[in-house]
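Model: You mentioned two targets. I'll fold them one after the other.
Researcher: Yes, keep them separate.
Model: Target one:
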Amino acid sequence: MLIKEFRNRFISELSELYDIAEAERFFYMLLEEYRAMKRIDLSLYPDSFFSKPEIALFENAFEKLRQEIPIQYIIGKAHFYGLEFEVNPHVLIPRPETEELVDWIVTTFEFKGSPKILDIGTGSGCIAISVAKNLPDADVSAIDISADALETAKRNAIRNNANVTFIQTDILSANRLDEYDVIVSNPPYVRHLEKQEMGNNVLEHEPHLALFVSDDDALIFYRKIAALSIHALRPGGTLFFEINQYLAQETIRMLDAAGFTDIELRKDLFGNDRMVKALKPQ
């Protein structure tokens, strides 16, 4: 079958679930993954054919997309901060907003020696690994409650030639942390009442353990991490959070009550309150 003919059918049928631009993006992602062809290649070679095995691969991916399985899980990888990460249903798919959090850390510490950094709730390892790659003198560790997530993160560290120490820990049960210069966390923060804002691709396929918190105690992870961090951080040390956009002021008040100073709130690329930086007093 001509690739361009398959492309037209693929996009037309998927547009029942996705908008046309997204369906087209999915097709070209799969074309690059399964055939090593880019959009320009199809323009240059419009008479290219799919073999029967290639058609089977695309049909399989098509059926998964109809089930609203995220494209990143289908191809098994996602790009984040210039790096490539394995992703699977044990870990969240890295978001562009989180790249901004990583960039805040990197630009803050790129000329500040060899900071000791901890990433809490690492998932795929995208924050810890990206920081380690861009701050090569840093001593980076990462923790997560999920053994499956940590195995994925370890593979991602090898994949990206990054030096990160991984530890399995339930942060809510932890009594203390080692001493660090920087602690960063993108913990679960979506309340159940916010589920209606999320697509089925997230609700049905991404790990709820890494996403949701109780409506009645939405800051449970933030309070615990702040309480541990105010003791674990060295004087002048920095705590970074990715936060729920609807709970920015509550998060700031909690950090202030926990003893942090110089609390700074930043918006993400979509204009939502998304990141907080706070300092432990000298």
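Model: Target two:
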Amino acid sequence: MIDGRRGRTTQEQAGPSARAAGGRRHAIGARLVRLGISADHVTVAGVLLAVANSVVIASGALYVACALLIVGGLMDTLDGVVAKAAGTASARGAFFDSVADRVADGFLFGGLAWYLAVGHHPREALLPVAILAVGSVISYERAKAESLGFSGRGGLMERAERLIIFGLAMLVHVVMIPILWALLVLTTGTAIGRFVRVWRQASGTAVARPPVGVRSWRRGRVDSRWRQLRETGSTAPARLSAGQGARWRNRRSTATLSTRLRGVLNAEHAGSRSAARAARPGRPTRSSRPTRSSRRLTDGGRTR
């Protein structure tokens, strides 16, 4: 992707020329930071340039569109450089940059689809739309794979390569349609390759899940017959003898559904009233109430 994040690998793996280029980009980023330009400003400017470029493409000025596409690619590499120079590189900036790339791609390929629809190739206007759709699948595969802990990178047609061939199709627009067909085929192959790569990584990785119909109890939940009926399909007690179990199953099989639900709701209502009476302050319980024989007693053990 043209997002300024590939520089860390090229500087580490390439030779002195790549490190010198990285130093020049860092100097440019530092100069932009001194001018008060942040990485978000560069990203927003890149999106606005893509919007303007889509209008230029739709109007048919393809050579001008190629020049604007090159400028937009250079700006897209500067946001990461500016963020590193300012020390503001963060996950929020990476998220904003990725979303801005998708929006810019939509405008660019939409402008090309408009150009083909109003020109001499109305049937081939769906080619840019198809390329955009498959490119979105490639980006989604990478994002989903990384969220699951796998590696979803790689492939022949990443965003940088797609934009290069996109610019080549506008530069030699005499053979634009064959180039777009080739781009669609290569992009589809990249999407399939990433899918297979992540599929192989995820093979054999199982996620532990509870059995169907069984839910784990959370701390603080109150056991009740209604929850037991809803989660297990039965309100029978957990432990029953053989005779009690048989009688329970016979009664459950002969009773209607409305009767069983009414019994469950009545039991719930009775249980809640009993709990409310027990929790009411100042109300004596049955065990603490004085009996009739105790009321007969007076001081000294004599009755009245």
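Researcher: Noted. Anything on target two?
Model: Residues 1-13, 216-222, 297-304 have pLDDT under 50 and may be disordered.
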